[in-house]
Target: Vacuolar protein sorting-associated protein 29
Amino acid sequence: MLVLVIGDLLLPYRALDLPAKFRKLLVPGKIQQVVCTGNVCDRQTLDYLRSLASEFHMVKGDYDEVSDLANLVLQYPPVRIGVVHGHQVIPAGDKAALASLARSMNVDVLLSGYTHQFEAYAYEGRFFINPGSATGAWSTEVPLPSAPTQAASTTSSQDTPEANKATETGKPVTSAPSEPVAPEPDPLEDGSEEMVLDIQGAVVVIYIYQLINNEVKVEKLEYRKPVETTDPAAEA
Model:
């Protein structure tokens, strides 16, 4: 079973739209379930996510008004997957706090969001996944990168070699044609993330899609639930 895991879009408050390169990948009918970790905020986008698969599950984020579920448990025998937005976890994204929540929900895998940072790790015999933000929305939990100052990003024309040569000769200098410049990646979309779980019995293959420098990069991880074996001698 293929399951899209997506969350923290925060449209239109902290992002303008789901990246076009992600929309191109999300073709209705190719996945069986959509699981949202919350904070969609936009009805049109919510309807779009619902249209991608026959089953849609969502928990309530701290900015959502469309869902009343604080958490839910999905069963893919023998794997149990819990879903929570994560704003209830204190400190945010804390491993011990998430592990305590996973124990209380009795799940093998816990999906959570809120921090807008992708994570996937094993801890205390369980597996924890944060899909990040599908729109690259900024988070109050992670400081924004500082922008370069005008003085640092702008070079005076008087300091260039061409300008110095023109001053010495008194003649204008013609520059060589510049090479075509590739479009800059949208800083508001860069860092957008989503993932697809391929659930095959006790094995969950995790495909992580990340938008980096305007290109979609894909990584693959795997979680395998330990299978309990019965000792025939003990049953005799």
